[in-house]
């Protein structure tokens, strides 16, 4: 870890690729999918209420077309706006601000990395499993902004297209669907990378998982995760580094070793006060209508 930090600090690593999964958002309160630490607390262990034939069906496109209700019940819980980014998301932003992030590849659909949230600009972010930010009618393919669906999703209804009455599906990539075109940036990014940081993922879902093997064999790969996963468990390379345990603690240690702690704290404080300011402005705006 100290070597990795030194390489970043001395700017020997200037094209860092980050791969992330649900484990970076558990500190924000969002359950991951298949947690090993406390079986029973992963999302897939807690779907009985939706009466699914098997857990993964909730993200299967064939099942969705037959019965979209379970997905929308879950979408109500996971819809962006309910959760705040944590130190891991802000670390990626700081890496970008230092000019050392080549790209972040995330499997997360919570949008916490995004420009308007933790501040990672769109061109730096590949949301490999899609996003709630946009949606598409499954019948006429009309495009929607995710915010247009919010009232219906929050009321527990299945959003319908006003034009054709088809079900409007958030642009989340379901099993059985194509990954977004942006995913294929990996073809040029990974051979260029000079450091790969993998955090908060079980590396169980393909094709995302295989990206970890797409960096050159001389490139150091740092895993920050609760447990050993993917090639870190079964195909270690000489330059691989693993920091096992809580992801926030692991990233914090890296940030401390980099000497970036104050900057990161300032970034997080600014992010939080920005959100307070927005909500204060919103309150002021709303108060103007208090006569209603
Ligand atoms: P998983 O739930 O499969 O894996 C999360 C990983 O993060 C596990 O290795 C956990 O041990 C680890 N973890 C969780 N909380 C942590 C913490 N606080 N500190 C350190 N480690 C922690 O999630 P993903 O790998 O993201 O696909 O799952 C990949 C895909 O499977 C998802 O994108 C989703 C799902 O099916 C789709 O929706 C298409």
From TrEMBL:
Source organism per UniProt: Poecilia formosa (Amazon molly)
Give a yes or no for keyword GTP-binding in this entry: no
**Which keywords has UniProt assigned to this entry?**
Metal-binding, NAD, Transferase, Zinc
- Does the UniProt entry include the keyword Zinc? yes
What name does UniProt use for this protein?
NAD-dependent protein deacetylase
MF-aspect GO terms: histone deacetylase activity, NAD-dependent; NAD+ binding; zinc ion binding
Task: State the source organism's domain of life.
Answer: Eukaryota
Function per UniProt: NAD-dependent protein deacetylase.
Similarity-based family: Belongs to the sirtuin family. Class I subfamily.
Identify the cofactor(s).
Zn(2+)
List the catalytic activities from the record: N(6)-acetyl-L-lysyl-[protein] + NAD(+) + H2O = 2''-O-acetyl-ADP-D-ribose + nicotinamide + L-lysyl-[protein]
Relay the cofactor remark from the entry. Answer: Binds 1 zinc ion per subunit.
Annotated residues that bind NAD(+) are located at: 22-26, 32-34, 107-110, 201-202, 225-227
* Any one GO cellular component localisation term in the record: nucleus
Say which enzyme class the record assigns: transferase
The catalytic site is made up of 129
Q: Which PANTHER family match?
A: NAD-DEPENDENT PROTEIN DEACETYLASE SIRTUIN-3, MITOCHONDRIAL (PTHR11085:SF5), NAD-DEPENDENT PROTEIN DEACYLASE SIRTUIN-5, MITOCHONDRIAL-RELATED (PTHR11085)
Q: Where does Zn(2+) bind?
A: 137, 140, 161, 164
